[in-house]
Amino acid sequence: QVQLVESGGGLVHAGGSLRLSCVVSGLWFEIKGMDGMGWYRQAPGKERELVANISATYYADSVKGRFTISRDNAKNTLYLQMNSLKPEDTAKYYCAAPGPVSTYWGQGIQVTVSS
Questions:
Q1: What is the pLDDT of residues 69-88, one digit of tens each?
Q2: Are 108 and 5 in contact (CB under 8 A)?
Q3: φ, ψ of residue 98 in degrees (nearest 5)
């Protein structure tokens, strides 16, 4: 099992910054570490999309150059630094970890960017 707890969301004006954190714990995490973990987001009426992946150093085209994914192994924490935020970045953001059968998800955290 893996537990993922996100924090750091909120309301910000366009052009502002936020840093999301995801604290990871659980037996599966102790075996696998944070390899393969990523951040997803889902806006109202849209499908959930991958924003960034720590292992592949993947970024969605829409966030390249603005968002940075990183991790602190000592703190068991995955981060998403979001700069130059735009109203279209408004969504619920989820931390995700690959499991043996399916993906583990955090509860999600809201990010709202006002124009």
A1: 999 989 999 999 999 999 99
A2: no
A3: -70, 130
Q: What DSSP letter does each residue of 12-68 carry, written as one string?
A: EETT--EEEEEEEESHHHHHHTTTT-EEEEE-TTS--EEEEETTTTEE-TTTTTTEE
CA distance 21 to 25: 13
Question: Comparing C-alpha atoms, which of 67, 91, 72 is closest to residue 19?
Answer: 67
3: confidence class by pLDDT, cuts 50, 70, 90: very high
Tokens representing 24 are: 């990871």
CB-facing half-sphere around the CA of 80: CA atoms within 13 A: 32
